[in-house]
Records
---
Amino acid sequence: MASIATSFEIDNTIEIPGRRAPLVTGNQTLGSVTEMVSSVAERPQPKIWYIAFAISFSMMVMFFSLIAYLIYMGVGIWGNMSPVFWAWPIVNFVFWVGIAHAGTLISAVLFLFRQNWRTSINRAAEAMTIFAVVCAGIFPGIHVGRAWLAFWLTPYPSLNLWMWPQFRSPLLWDVFAVSTYASVSLMFWYMGMIPDLATYRDRSKTKLRRLIYGILCLGWTGSTRHWMRYEKAYTILAALATPLVLSVHTVVSFDFAVSQLPGWHTTIFPPYFVAGAIFSGFAMVITLLVPVRKIYGLEHLITMRHLENMNKIILVTGSLVGLAYATEFFMAWYSFNGFESYTFINRAFGPYWWAYWIMVSCNVICPQLFWFKKLRTSPVLMVIISIFVNIGMWFERFVITVTSLSRDFLPSSWGYFRPTIFDMLMLAGSFGLFMTLFLLFCRFLPTIAMAEVKGVMSAHAHAEAHLAGDHGQHHH
Amino acid sequence: MSSNGNQNRVRYFRSLAQLENTTEFEEHLHREFPVAASEFPEGVSRRRWMKLMGASLAFGGAAGCRYQVEQIAAFVVRPENHVAGVPNYFATNFEWAGRVMHLLATNMDGRPIKLDGNPQHPMYASSEQKDFHDGKDAKFASAGTDVFAQAAVLSLYDPDRLDRVIRKQEGRSVDSSWAAAESMLNELRTELLKDEGKGFAVLFDATRSPSLRRKLKELSATFPQATISELKSVAYPNQEKVLESVAGGGELVHQLDAAKIIVALDADLLGSDEHAVLYTRQFGMNRTPNSQMNRLYCVESQYSVTGGSADVRLALNSSKLPGFVSALEAAVDAQLGGASADIADSDYSDLSYEAKVARVVQVIARDLVANQGASLVAVGPHHSEEVQLAGLRLNAKLGNIGKSVKVFQKSDPLAGSSVGLAELAARISSGNVKRILVLGGNPVFCGPTEFRLSETLKSAEIIYLTDYEDETAAISSWVLPATHPLETWGDVLSATGVYGVCQPQIEPLLNGHSALEVLGVLIGRPVPAMQFVRETVTELSSGMFTDNQWKQLLHDGFVTMEASLAAVNIDASQKLEAEAGFGDLLKDRKAEVLLLPSPSVYDGRLANNAWLQELPQPVTKLTWDNALIVSPRTAKALDLKQGELARVNHDAVGVDLPVFIVPGVADGSAIAHIGYGRTAAGSVGNGVGHSVQALRRNPGSWLLTGAEIRGTTRPYKLSTTQDHFAIDELGLSEIAKRAPTLVREGTLESYQSDPKFAHVEMHHKIESLWKNPAVNIDYAWGMTIDLNKCTGCNACVIACQAENNIAVVGKEQVARGREMHWLRIDRYFHCDPDRSRRESGFADPVDVTIVHQPLMCVHCENAPCEQVCPVAATVHTEEGINAMAYNRCVGTRYCANNCPYKVRRFNYLNYNTKYGYHYGWQDYRESVNTKLQSLVLNPEVTVRGRGVMEKCTYCIQRVQNGKIKARAEGDGRVHDGDIKSACQEACPTQAIVFGDLNDRASRVSQLQADPRSYSMLEELNVKPRTKYLARIRNVPKELTMNYQRNTLSHGHGAHGDHDMEHATTSAAH
């Protein structure tokens, strides 16, 4: 029985050349990691969990009730209008798809690049991905005028019609991109969880838990053969998921880029959208993990170094996004296209100027604060900044979708979009759904990939011990 | 005979005499809904409706002389010559408020669903377009209508129409019956006969029906002591008086086609004028830019349809018009006397306002003098007698009378037997009239306030025949349901003296009877209406009218007769004494208010017509409201803000109106439409807009000078279909930049020097990603809209709505930009961009002119909507129509986003099952019973449910019918003119031409080959099938404004347009 780790803290954010900073701090043993992670699900949940769950769950119930009302009444309950035929629901969709980017990026791309620090955060990030995709998937489904026929977008052999969907439409590509992404991410997430679920099974004290975790872990025994196949499958899935990280938001951006609307019709969208998605995804991971780490006492596993690394990514992608904004303006001017240049001038100085400048200040200015180490290693500040980043990214989609539509070619058809209460409540409701799922995840599933953490721990534990100058406490 | 609840009673009847009634059950009925909820049994299916209507069709057939036997029979055996689902067409006439329409009704299985002009009618036939045919080929003939005629069918099926006799006793109103009403009328006759009708009066709504006037004459003969008075809600007594004095009464009718120079002085010839359809037609005849092209001057305070169509428009306060007319008369006199026009060489744009006015006077005078006998001066009928007289005098001096200006003799059987409203009011208040029969017209709401009709009438016992349980019904003792003009026999005599019959298209749906029938009972000679009409026509044709002639009359809808011209005696030596001052009205913060009949609801009688309420008014694009229309400068001077209420005080009367700012309205003038603010119009019209009736003191009070207007800060939400919000300066300057490239226009001069001026040369070759599949096509449908002929009159908008079952969405939804009109008329202001930017900003642009552009789906060959629809719900037909498969549409709305013309309409809510203000959780109103209303639907067109995208289909149902007809009856091929779209058919100027582009000889092909032809947003390479013909303004060079002179640069050279050319490169990819 491993002992609970000591509270030996070490600042692992300092880069000392030639020496790797430890990924896990606090003199962890394999046992203490198991203990720490499992206790999240095994111990009674803190009060804050119940409060958060009560709020999230009621918001989720409201969300589904509103969806029922929407399907009963029609999409006219939203503020969508002519010419802004797409508004908040699509903004929310793109927003949630963007959020969904960090998980797979962390688990797949960073895995392939052997970025071992990913192990402490990938599970939660992947979970977040799945839940964000759930939220994202709902919006286009209910956004169509006849939601009960939304399945017509899927290519199924229809005996009545003898027809396929229209393959030239980016919306159809979207269906493929998002559903592929959702299924691969889900599979990846679940597969990675199997060894940890087995740990949970083994530690279960009630029959029911044992049964459920037993089923979920698919009879994992931890044999070398299991491990070998697991590792192989994991690598293959990572390789499969990696292009999806890039493709899904690329395809989402095609919804806009392939149209001929000024402000939508630009070739910069795919990289710009992907950068923005990673940007918002990481911001959401920060927003969630900092409180989780604090509440469940996981500071030794999710260390400051993890958070700092993510903040650096936020800084990079935020700057990329800023560059994209500038490039759009440059192209609008350089292309000498009157419609295009008006669209961009109108974005910044037209009736939606407020949205544009919220976007710029949140997405471009805010993350620049992360140049300062003090700021990027302060949990409170980074949560605040990451929340601003997510507000900014929501507004980015709003600016792209709504302002471009509101003033296109014919001034006779210009309009000004105003959201209704339903728009607002449903955005809030989708957060309720997201948070409900995330809280349930914390409650019932391994929040941190224990097996993977352990895999990368030994070397660092060793190094850490050396650093501490104490060979005698070496655990191996 | 009420149809309440009882499903087994006889529904259709011939006359009052035939009526039997069970009063007991009538009177205990308390209806839950004031609408036709109980008229139609729940779940009345189309099949059941067919059965019911079979009866009426059989009868209607008798009416139309197709079937001689008058009996009620179901379609058990198919009546001869009737094929279910194939419409019949009946020529008929239509009259309301004294306005006459000559129509061809489309009758589908016994119910009229569409009204269009009767192209054979002499009123229209004389002004048939000569561009493409010699007048012999009837296929091309189309008469054109106005919005009122197009919307009339909706009123016919209005469930709010009164459907029962109501009797008021001791403050309680109970449902009564026609039998009771009949015995009341009989008793009344007996009583009245005792002292020759003393104490009795008849107040009837304005009418041009010879039969009704004859009937009233009969009444006057039966009861010599009775008072008879006509209620004209829209009356111009000054004009009448002048005509009386110079021509012994008569009808003033202009001949715009006979005039090369048309000068409209505060006269909305093409808009609110009674003869607007005729005038618009005549105007359109000479609008092809060649040497024949006419020139329209418009001097006015409001921005009217006429002003929008004018070649030269001068904004001038109505109160200063006398000065203008006097100056014009002086100039004409001088030039007739040999003086040459005093026109300096300076640039018109740079002149001060006074100098502009002076220049316009000189140029108009020069043009008038140069075109004596072929010019026309029309003066707004609301102006004073002196001004009216001056107008006629000008025409007389120019030799126009009898040529372009005609005064027709009027014969009125009632002449001498009727009194004016003032006299009637006096007799009521003095107690001389105790009982009054009101035949329509809603005097309580529409009546001028000076006579205090709404007050005085209360002291009399009123028997009221009405369509609706309206404001007058509230104070009446007996309220009798009237028939809709499409339900009854009647007749009309047009201003030019052409006689026409109104034949019923359907049996009275809601238990109504016509005024003829009611009067018949009252005077004890209940002749069936048809018989009475026939008596009238026999009398008019000097006693000889054979059965065959009668049949011919019913077939044609009219008999050719024309009133003779009246002799006009004008003293040419007289002069109009008026101060020619054109100073600033706003100096002492006083303004003039010009009241006008509403272009949508007229005097308020059409307030319950949802099509009209939702019709964007021609210039403001305002729906569901009236407003105080002022110029930006007036608003600034008087602290008025768009979207806020203003208080108008005039002579101790105050009304509140929301402010609406329109550039180009004369500074210091405020325009308000009457007919709004109804309190008892029905579920659609109640509480729509603000009433200005309080300002309508007497029939002639249209122009109120010295009004005090103050802004209140109370907000009021207006719903417009264009410029949904106050547009910022950035947007306005962009609109000013873009509008000339969208609606291309040039002066006649520029056109003559370069006919292809409207073409924008592309710098780059436009290439497409797609190759059009090679299909073996017979037809390639296309359309051309001639912006030079379009006046923006809106008739096409309602025609499209009626033809294609387009839903009404209500004010709130319009505010959200969700109106469903497939065809909209875009209105842009052209202005001097440089000076606007420099001087006043684009919110108050300099030298404004208006252009209209009807826009519906342009059926792109390379349609962007089709490429992005994930379910292939919008696809191309082989013939080039961009079609919608409603059943396949799931409503992603991507197509609408990708449509550069924004012509796609989405059913956000279930607009077709309910309409009104609110939907869903906000819907606290009783839902309108739509059973009856749905009868107006065209069975050829799918009714769209919610969640589905829709748009113009080029009237694909008409195309299909045309092809079927060509196969069945013709040589298998559709020829040019066989198929007309609904908008084309409704257009008075034939600005819209539809046809086959594969046929090189077709009108549409020829027009698309015209040098003026251009595609809007051509640079996107979507290849629209609808093309526009650039507008040409026939502006004399002395009055050409800077930006008009430089129009050519819109195509080439100017910086802004390079942007447009370059737009090609990125946007078309």
Note: Chain B has a mean pLDDT of 83.
---
Amino acid sequence: MTVPAAPAGWRHRVMGRAVPLPVRRNAFVAAGGLIVLLFAAAAAFPRLFTHASPTALYVGPPLSPPSAAHWFGTDELGRDFFARVVYGARDSLVMSVLVVAIGALAGTAIGALAGFRGGAADEVLMRIVDLFLALPAFILALALSAFLGRGMASVVIALSIVWWPGYARQVRGMVLSTKHRLHVQGARALGASRWRIVRRHILPFTYGQLNTRVTQDLGFALVNVAGLSFLGVGAQPPASEWGLLLNAGRSYVTNGWWLTLFPGLAITVWTLGAALLGDGLAARLRGESQGRP
Amino acid sequence: MGVYVVRRAGWAVLLVWLVTVFTFVLSHVIPGNPAAFLAGFGATRQEIRALAIQMGLTKPLIVQYGDYMGSLFHLQLGTSAATGDAVTTDLAHYLPATVELVVISFALYVAIAVPLGTWAAHSQGRLVDVLLRVATIVGSGVPVFWLGILLQELFFARLGWLPDSGELPIGSAAPPHYTGMYLVDSAVAGQWGTFGQAVLHLVLPVATIVIAMLAVGLRSTRASVLQELGRPYVRTARSKGMGEARLLTGHVMRNALNPVISLLSLQFGYLLGWVVLVETVFDWPGIGLYTYNSIQSLDYDPIMAVTLLTATVFIVVNLLADLAYPLLDPKIRDAGS
């Protein structure tokens, strides 16, 4: 299949799709994208950012404030705190990305099924969604992960279980509003299989909104992941997941402000970056909504 | 109207029942063998087996479920391994502090967010718009537990204005027990010194919760009021010479309130989750801290009980919000009957 030439002013491509120029120039979106890229790089290649080890003890005097040698200071065991925060990115981000990915995929599949099939399947699935949305998600995730045993895997499983219903409801709504359109009827008349109709003729209409939601969710997921680790059910020492760092650091509120400042900043900046990027995608979507899907 | 109430209440009861199924599945099905947990390291297979029989874990699941529901109806929620007390006793002990924190925070939040949001809508301006937008993004990105730590850092460690944690200064006597809520108890007993201390200790945790929720509440109240302000009835009322204050409180607010209430009930759910985090940060001796301590010692009965309690409270609050809509909005009332 040939890719049609992008119309003038649509030369730039993000995730394989044309992006109008003004959006690319939008400083907020660029900042958001930069933050996300930078953090992803820290998660993938921490050595690019620091040569210090996150676990080596007494590389500096314990509890020393930020300095040229140790940008984020050192913790109570004299570990380089910058290295700990940088290396913490991997645990924090991998957990959040997994939660959002599992939640979005499962939610999309279930929402598409419910919306497309309708009838009893729709009724049952949507009541299950209602059930989840009517309960306090964080508490459920906390209980689930406590019972699955401490560790990062149980946090991912627990949060994914409370994460998918939002996607399911949204996708179902979008599928319902699409499935009676002419092009779907046309595809059906041509004998396309159900699977093909859903995948090629209905779901692409949801991608734009889902991209926005997924991007913003990356931030919210991290806040939840860090919260569960803060409470002790997620990452375990000596990992330096950010929620875990915050819990360890709060014993030093009077004499080690840097131990809580930097991990908290890391969480906030990542969430901010994701929100800005998501906002930008949403703006692009609005600009595009007059045109093609 | 009657049908609406019955349907909503029925859904709430069904939800509570489903939560008990959830807690049952968690506590009896998922972790493989709770008896092995309880028996501890190095227990022989016979010991675990004996404990499992004693705990009723060898019975068929359906029988276990019957036993479980029976004990729930008798309010037997198990025993806390850490405190050695019945979980119900512990909950009664810890609950008042949480109720105090949650009620005061939420009341203060509503009292600030709704009027301020209305004002922000009325004085439409780009600056307000931008400020709210930034505050919302930052507010949703700052984790509530970090916000609490930052406030401790500033107002306790730097400025020394406020205590960092607890309900009262260490070593000071608690007021006589009437409700368990120190503000109420000290006021009833006339111990105004203790009352003042209790207020001081409440400031930071309450501020943490209010600040964390504020931006979202402001923004949605404002959006809701703005939408109403554009309607023809507002122009009619103004052209008849109605004062802005009366217009806002008597006409606009009543119409704008429903979406705000549904947001508030949703946020109450977040708040119930945050309580665990905030109480942990501030060593606030409520059920959140109890949950945190139970997690540290893998004490499962209390975690289950708190989950059940929190979910039930949330379901009841949602039910109340659902029942408030028709009271506030005659259109829904007529449609429902």
Note: Chain B has one domain: 2-31+77-336.
